[in-house]
């Protein structure tokens, strides 16, 4: 039973919520040389809970809509497979969203109107990615939403909670993990292009085709590399330069995405891209600290 819930949570995707928070905390530390530990922990927990809620909602709501089928190449959807009942999944989704809201109350109190707006919008996104009258993932906006919420908002919002002002550096740096998070969604939609077409799920992959989607994945990764190079030059953070070369360590993965047939191997490509996201944010954080003289 526990294994079924772990499957529903999709642990390999959780890097998308953890990594940008790490980067945002690093930017805050550069500004003020200390961090509010309680706020940092709550930010991380809320980000994780919102990611988990989004995964549960995706599993539950796609099953209700009949999107999932036996042809699916991705990991098992536990609701569709009958491993967890729809009722139990619905209750788990409500519980996780409630926990995120309860923990977020303190953050909204600390952060004021800006964080209240971001927090409530993030709660809606966790559900609205798959649910609601206009599900983002069904209307070609999955990659865009991932770019915004797991990139710019995640990094700059985390920094704002610590320093109580918006940081240009945090906003710009947030674009990097935004590109990579969008890539994760793009790989997911590339893998599911056949079943999404049959279910009339209008993702970017369905709208523009397989070749376009493959190119999109590579362009987004290239942009993540270019972004950190630009920041290194513009802000004189010399130790960020090596991060721009990080995609070379994953070259086999990018080639697989661009050339290999659409099959279950894309699940591994997706996991590798999530690992790239975590390494990107951790190494960028280290580069920032070294460049600013906060560590020797």
- Rg from alpha-carbon coordinates: 19 Å
Looking at the chains present, what oligomeric state does this protein adopt? single chain
Distance between the termini: 47 Å
Low-confidence stretches: none
Overall mean pLDDT: 89
How can the largest sheet be summarized?
A: none
Assign a percent range to the helix content: over 70%
Strand content range: under 5%
General shape? globular
Number of domains: 1
Number of helices: 13
- How many strands in all? 0
* Class inferred from helices and paired strands: mainly alpha
The ordered H/E elements are: HHHHHHHHHHHHH
Can you describe what's shown?
It is a single chain. With 296 residues, the protein is an all-alpha fold. The protein has one domain (2-292). It is 74% helix and 0% strand. The protein contains 13 helices and no strands. α5 (86-111) runs antiparallel to α6 (113-128), α8 runs antiparallel to α13 and α11 runs antiparallel to α12 (251-259). It is globular, with a radius of gyration of 19 Å. The chain starts with a helix and ends with a helix. 47% of the residues are buried.
Topology of this protein?
Blueprint: H1 2-9, H2 15-32, H3 37-65, H4 78-81, H5 86-111, H6 113-128, H7 142-163, H8 168-191, H9 193-198, H10 204-208, H11 210-234, H12 251-259, H13 265-292
Summarize this structure as a short list of keywords or feature phrases.
0% strand; mainly alpha; globular; 296 residues
Give a brief description.
This protein has 296 residues and is mainly α.
């Amino acid at each position: 039973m526990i294994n079924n819930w772990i499957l529903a949570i999709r642990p390999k995707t959780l890097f998308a919520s953890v990594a940008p928070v790490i980067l945002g905390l690093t930017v805050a530390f550069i500004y003020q040389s200390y961090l509010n530990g309680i706020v940092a922990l709550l930010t991380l927990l809320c980000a994780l809970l919102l990611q988990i809620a989004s995964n549960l909602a995706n599993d539950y709501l796609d099953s209700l809509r009949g999107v999932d089928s036996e042809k699916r190449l991705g990991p098992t959807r536990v609701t569709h497979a009958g491993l967890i009942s729809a009722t139990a999944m619905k209750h788990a989704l409500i519980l996780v969203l409630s926990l995120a809201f309860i923990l977020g109350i303190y953050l909204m109190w600390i952060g004021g109107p800006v964080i209240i707006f971001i927090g409530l919008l993030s709660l809606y996104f966790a559900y609205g990615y798959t649910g609601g009258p206009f599900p983002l993932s069904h209307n070609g906006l999955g990659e865009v939403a991932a770019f915004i919420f797991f990139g710019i908002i995640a990094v700059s919002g985390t920094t704002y909670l610590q320093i109580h002002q918006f940081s240009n550096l945090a906003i710009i740096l947030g674009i990097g993990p935004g590109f990579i998070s969008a890539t994760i969604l793009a790989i997911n939609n590339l893998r599911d292009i056949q079943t999404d077409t049959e279910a009339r799920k209008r993702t970017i992959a369905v709208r523009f085709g397989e070749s376009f989607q493959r190119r999109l994945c590579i362009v987004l990764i290239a942009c993540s590399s270019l972004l950190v190079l630009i920041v290194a030059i513009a802000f004189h953070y010399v130790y960020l330069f090596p991060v721009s070369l990080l995609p070379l360590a994953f070259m086999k993965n990018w080639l697989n995405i661009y050339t290999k047939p659409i099959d279950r191997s894309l699940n591994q490509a997706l996991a590798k891209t999530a690992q790239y996201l975590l390494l990107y944010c951790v190494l960028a954080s280290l580069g920032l600290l070294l460049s600013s003289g906060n560590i020797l």
